[in-house]
Design brief:
The complex is a heterotrimer of chains A (287), B (463) and C (437). Chain A is of the alpha/beta class and 287 residues long. Chain A has one domain: 3-Layer(aba) Sandwich (Rossmann fold). Helices cover 36% and strands 23% of the residues of chain A. Chain A has a six-stranded mixed sheet with strand order 6-7-8-3-9-10, with helices on both faces. In chain A, strands 2-1-4-5 form a four-stranded antiparallel sheet, with helices on one face. Chain B is built from 16 helices and two strands. Chain B has two domains: 157 residues, no CATH class; 235 residues, MetI-like fold. Chain B is mainly α. Chain C folds into two domains: 130 residues, no CATH class; 218 residues, MetI-like (MetI-like fold), CATH 1.10.3720.10. A three-stranded antiparallel sheet of chain C has the order 2-1-3. The longest helix of chain C is centred in the N-terminal third of the chain and has 48 residues. Chain C has 18 helices and three strands. The chains are: A alpha/beta (287), B mainly alpha (463), C mainly alpha (437). Chains in contact: A-B, A-C, B-C. Chain B: One of its GO terms (cellular component) is plasma membrane. Chain B: InterPro entries: MetI-like, MetI-like_sf, Phosphate_PstC, PstC_N, RhesusRHD. Chain B: It is a multi-pass membrane protein.
Chain lengths: 287, 463, 437
């Protein structure tokens, strides 16, 4: 696989996206989509919405303690792909996923696998901050409570505090934990949602354009937070902003019309894109 | 049928006015080929004339029909020999007038005839005759006058369209104001009669008294001549029946809404939702029949079989059936508010690994709570205002009890009972019905305003 | 908060997922219970609908048939038409009860006792002669002949034949005693008893006798009331909706109107009855018990429904239509009447039909304005005393005779059938003209 992918040089990269979609699927991906010790690994993933194919044969690995960013123009399927990773697509009528997605070697689309504990292991942060209409404390405590992670109030208090601390929100809200989470500013709400996700001790965190609804200052804080979280979690982030991808991620994957066009070290992708489409996107010719 | 014939005549005049106005406009322009010189199309000239012919005349006709009876009655009463009114209460005068009216129209009369009454009846008939002729004459004159006025205005430069549009707009404003007039009418009609009632019975007794037996003796020497108007048993009865209804409707309605909007497949939802909503379209008299003839005997039988004493008209039967009636009300309102909870809330919860029921109980229902509460308040308002079920199934005994197997009576039952028997319009008994009506109106109004405000605020939150 | 050294996160992520997995069974049990609860609620709702309809239909379907006796009746000329004029007025007033009784006497010659004879006579409805009169007026040649007539049975016998009277109950508990049962059995054996389609139910006004009671009067009353209510509420409702939705400035007055309309939609219907009694009857002297006053009250009641749905219909017409019309120089009112209104009309009509359905089923306010009076005649106009179908149901439901139970249920079936048709019309209208912009 590896060699095949590398064999495709810049000339084949000039193929149009539709030709790429023609059938060779993942083999068309430029760059090495595998990693040494993957946390999650996806092979030949197709996603269909009814009769419309949204993802076409994508193969991609996510490593331990890395931030993988997914970029690409609107409608390229990067959010759809992200939602496959913890089976959030299950909630959408008529959505069908084929191929294999493995978490620590176990196929998450296996019939016997239960999405509930899966989602406890693979958390997700959404584009628009979506705190529950509850107090800040209850927002963070919600996950531990439903999963029964703590045995008593003291433990729960400690878990809420540590989660809020890790999300960098503790100092700002420690005096008003009983106030509604919806009363916070946009950036604070998003960090609250991150704290909420951390509180159930996931192994992988998926982030779907987490900063698109935030102002630049709040964005900077969240980006810093993502960088810190890398120490303990694997993170996959979908972003619209190439600068953000460059700032926070170690590896970058470029999607186009449902195809994974190119994947590689973030530095390489931005300084030396090997595929024409990647280059066009990065240099701002479309997107 | 007099008024209907006249209305037909008026319509004919309007049609003629339309035709004449059109023709005049065309000829004013100098023929059908030159109508471009008109400011407005001939159609509008016609409409202008028709409106002028119709509206003032219709207004006059309405006013005349509305007030002729009052004026004639006043005239007849004034002409009665004063000694025949001496010492009569207001109510007795009303009866007397009624007799006169019946006599004039050739119906049976309750009291014995005196020449005075006979004369008054004759005069009544005469006045009615005069009034009727005058009405015809005046209305048709006004119609023709209006038409003439409009036609005399008609000339090519007249802005007929603008004028017609202004009239139509004013008519629409009047139509929209009918809502306010209705509220005002309700308020004034119940308020005035209630005030008269509270002159006779102190509000303290009405709102705090615990004994209700509104029988007022016709003659002063009868026992229990005063009647008792302590409405507390009515209020508790209403609350008891409503509470039973809500105990049935809220859990079933809410759970059904949750199941249909969160769990049910599209097919089940498409079938079950309209079928349950059929319950909302069934007339209340049908529920009343069902409660009185099927549910009440059933409960009574069940009760006796386990050794309980059940009144044949128990609060339970009425409450249960009322609850069934309110189920679709609660479920469709809850369905609306649950669907208004944004998908992002569900996503957030599922992404944390919550199961569907956890998401519903801990996120969706709390998020939708204000809307659900608003819906339940509206349902309560409907329950306490519901009439037919309780009239047919709850009974008349004003018991102060919390036992659902007992017979209770409600505010609405008493309003119906007090107003459907044969009685004078002005007796304390009749007036009591209006006092109850006022209480009912204020209670439901408050509930509605609070509920609608809550629901509106809730909707704005997620819009 | 607590000792910061207690940091559960020092444990490995594995531990968390083990906890999660351990609790899963319990959580799924809860999930199933909750789901079951929801399904039960839906099921209960459906069962209630089924029960209600089954109960009504089960009680009422027998009312569409009525028991008759086929008896040979001799219409002697000197009893029916002594002067031989065959004047319909004479024929209508003639005594037909005597020939019926004579016929019964011939069939049961053994009945001699006066009390027994009276009992025998009572198996025939008091309305039976009237049916013969109608037949004779239609065909005067029957006079002087003997022919078989279908003679209407008394309601007690009707109940007996339909099986509502338990023959095994002690005689004193029954409305029909053993002797009468014997006679009826004999008539049945001779093939003289038959259940025939109950035309009286559809052609007659109400009556104190169940076998003579029909819904024609109530139906006509409902018809006149609805026609008038429609004629009043539709133009007013649509006019108000257009003004409020399209022209009204946003100010206190229009806010007040809005609040009022929403509240009126939720005011108990009986309060409208009080309004009708105090204002229309008490103040304006509108004659009580008439379709006119009923229509006025129902108009006020249904206006909020019509206004609210008409406004929704207007809202669904896209602004581009209005802009296009205004752009070619139509006045705002022309825009409304030529372009917006035709597009919004299906929605408005749907709302109006639903409002009329509500008005058709309404009972409580009409009790207040005298529709409860006992009126036998079928009304012929807007100002004739009348009753309406739901009030008729209420009155019959209150009657003690067993025969009225099935007739009440049957009247309910007729009412529900009309409501069903109206709702069907509304649904079809919506389907047919629904437009997605």
């Amino acid at each position: 696989m590896n060699t095949m992918a590398e064999a495709i040089d810049k000339t084949t990269g000039a193929m149009s996206a539709s030709e790429l979609a023609g059938g060779i699927h993942s083999r068309a991906t430029v760059g090495d989509f595998t990693v040494a010790d993957p946390r999650m690994s996806c092979r030949d993933v197709d996603v269909w919405y009814g009769s419309k194919q949204a993802i076409k044969g994508v193969s991609l690995d996510i490593a331990q303690n890395e931030v993988l960013s997914m970029i690409g123009p609107s409608g390229c399927g990067k959010s759809t792909f992200l939602r496959c990773l913890n089976r959030m697509n299950d909630t959408i009528d008529g959505c069908r996923v084929t191929g294999s997605i493995r978490l620590d070697g176990q196929d998450i689309y296996d019939r016997s696998l239960d999405p509930v504990p899966l989602r406890a292991r693979v958390g997700m942060v959404f584009q628009k901050p979506n705190p529950f209409p509850k107090s800040i404390y209850e927002n963070v405590a919600y996950g531990p409570r439903i999963h029964g992670l703590t045995n008593n109030r003291t433990e729960l208090d400690a878990l809420v505090e540590s989660s809020l601390r890790k999300a960098g929100l503790w100092e700002e809200v420690k005096d008003r934990l009983d106030q509604p989470g919806t009363g916070l500013s946009g950036g604070q709400q998003q960090r609250l949602c991150i704290a909420r996700t951390i509180a159930v001790s996931p192994e992988v965190i998926l982030m779907d354009e987490p900063c698109s609804a935030l102002d630049p200052i709040a964005t900077a804080i969240v980006e810093e937070l993502i960088d810190e979280l890398r120490a303990n979690y694997s993170i996959a982030i979908v972003t619209h902003s190439m600068q953000q991808a460059a700032r926070v991620s170690q590896r970058t994957a470029y999607f186009h019309l449902g195809d994974l066009i190119e994947v590689g070290e973030t530095n390489d992708i931005f300084t030396n894109p090997r595929h024409k489409l990647t280059e066009d996107y990065i240099t701002g010719r479309f997107g | 049928m007099n008024a209907w014939t006249l209305t037909l005549f008026l319509l004919a005049v309007m049609a003629a006015a339309y035709h004449l106005g059109r023709k005049r406009a065309i000829s004013g322009a100098g023929g059908i080929d030159r109508i471009k010189t008109l400011h407005s199309l001939p159609l509008y000239h016609g409409l202008y004339a028709a409106l002028w012919a119709g509206i003032p005349a219709l207004l006059l006709l309405g006013l005349w029909s509305g007030f002729q009876d009052q004026i004639i009655t006043a005239l007849v009463t004034a002409s009665l020999p004063p000694e025949s009114l001496d010492g009569l209460s207001e109510g007795r005068v009303g009866l007397l007038i009624n007799d006169i009216r019946n006599l004039a129209t050739g119906n049976i009369v309750s009291s014995t005839l005196t020449p005075g009454i006979q004369a008054a009846a004759d005069q009544y008939g005469r006045l009615q005759q005069i009034s009727s002729w005058t009405k015809w004459l005046l209305v048709l004159t006004v119609a023709l006058g209006g038409m003439g006025l409009a036609l005399s205005h008609t000339e090519p430069g007249m802005r007929a369209r603008n004028r017609v549009e202004r009239i139509v707009k004013i008519i629409m404003i009047v139509f929209s104001s009918i809502a306010i007039l209705t509220t005002l009418g309700i308020l004034l009609s119940v308020l005035f009669e209630s005030l008269r009632f509270f002159h006779a019975i102190s509000p303290l007794e009405f709102f705090l008294g615990t004994s209700w037996s509104p029988q007022i003796a016709l003659r002063a020497d009868q026992v229990g001549a005063s009647g008792e108007f302590g409405a507390v048993p009515l209020f508790t009865g209403t609350l008891l029946v409503s509470a039973i209804a809500m105990l049935v409707a809220v859990p079933i309605g809410l759970m059904a809404a949750i199941y249909l909007s969160e769990y049910a497949s599209r097919g089940v939802r498409a079938f079950a939702k309209p079928v349950i909503e059929v319950l909302a379209g069934i007339p209340t008299v049908v529920y009343g029949f069902f409660a009185a003839l099927t549910v009440a005997p059933l409960i009574r039988e069940l009760g006796t079989s386990v050794g309980l004493e059940v009144a044949s008209e128990s609060a339970l039967a009425a409450g249960l059936v009322m609850g069934v009636m309110i189920i679709p009300f609660v479920s469709s309102l809850s369905d609306d508010v649950i669907n208004a909870v944004p998908q992002s809330m569900r996503d957030g919860s599922y992404a944390l690994g919550a199961t569907q029921s956890e998401t519903i109980r801990r996120v969706i229902v709390p998020a939708a709570l204000p809307g659900i509460v608003g819906g339940i308040l509206l349902a309560v308002s409907r329950a306490i205002g519901e009439t037919m079920i309780v009239v047919m199934a709850a009974g008349l005994a004003a018991n102060l009890t919390a036992n659902p197997l007992d017979s209770v009576t409600t505010v609405t039952v008493q309003i119906v009972t007090l107003l459907t028997g044969d009685q004078e319009f002005d007796s304390a008994k009749t007036l009591a019905a209006f006092a109850l009506g006022l209480t009912l109106f204020m209670a439901t109004l408050t509930l509605n305003v609070v509920a609608l405000t809550i629901v509106r605020k809730y909707r704005e939150q997620y819009d | 908060m607590t000792d910061p050294s207690v940091n559960p996160d020092t444990s490995t992520p594995r531990r968390a997922i083990d906890v999660v997995n351990a609790s899963l069974k319990r959580r799924y049990a809860k999930e199933r219970r909750f789901r079951l609860l929801g399904a039960t609620a839906v099921g209960l709702g459906l069962v209630f609908v089924l029960l209600l309809f089954a109960d009504i239909v089960g009680k009422g379907y027998t009312a569409f048939q009525q028991t008759y006796y086929r008896l040979p009746v001799t219409l002697s000329a000197d009893l029916v038409d002594p002067e031989g004029t065959r004047d319909p007025r004479t024929l209508a007033r003639a005594d037909y009860m005597t020939p019926i009784r004579q016929s019964l006497r011939q069939l049961f010659p053994e009945v001699k006792d006066r009390r027994e004879r009276r009992q025998l006579n009572s198996i025939v409805s008091v309305g039976a002669p009237q049916l013969i009169a109608e037949a004779v007026i239609a065909n005067p040649d029957l006079i002087g002949t003997t022919s078989d007539f279908w003679i209407l049975a008394d309601d007690d016998i009707d109940m007996l034949v339909k099986g509502y009277i338990d023959r095994n109950a002690p005689e004193s508990d029954r409305r029909v005693d053993d002797r009468v049962i014997g006679w009826i059995d004999r008539l049945e054996d001779e093939g003289r008893v038959a259940k025939r389609f109950n035309t009286i139910f559809f052609t007659h006004g109400t009556s104190r006798e169940p076998e003579l009671a029909g819904i024609a009067g109530a139906l006509m009353g409902s018809f006149y009331t609805l026609v008038l209510a429609l004629a009043l509420s539709f133009p007013i409702g649509v006019g108000a909706a257009i003004y409020l939705e399209e022209f009204a400035p946003r100010n206190r007055w229009t806010d007040l109107i809005e609040v009022n309309i929403n509240n009126l939609a939720a005011v108990p219907s009986i309060v409208f009855g009080l309004l009708g009694l105090a204002v229309f009857i008490g103040f304006f002297g509108v004659p009580r018990s008439t379709p006119l006053v009923a229509a006025l009250v129902l108009t006020l009641m249904t206006l909020p429904t019509i206004i609210i749905s008409s406004r929704a219909a207007l809202k669904s017409v896209p602004p581009s239509i209005r802009e296009a019309a205004l752009g070619v120089g139509a006045s705002p009112l022309q825009t409304q009447f030529h372009h917006v209104l035709p597009l919004a009309m299906p929605g408005m009509l749907t709302g109006t039909i639903l409002g009329m359905a509500q008005a058709l089923g309404e009972t409580a306010p009409l009790l207040m304005i005298g529709m409860i009076a006992f009126i036998v005649d079928v009304p012929g106009g807007f100002t004739d005393p009348a009753t309406v179908l739901p009030v008729q149901i209420f009155l019959w439901a209150d009657s003690p005779e067993r025969g009225f139970v099935e007739r009440t249920s049957a009247a309910i079936m007729v009412l529900l059938a009309f409501l069903f048709l109206m709702n069907l019309a509304a649904v079809l209208l919506r389907r047919r003209f629904e437009r997605r912009w």
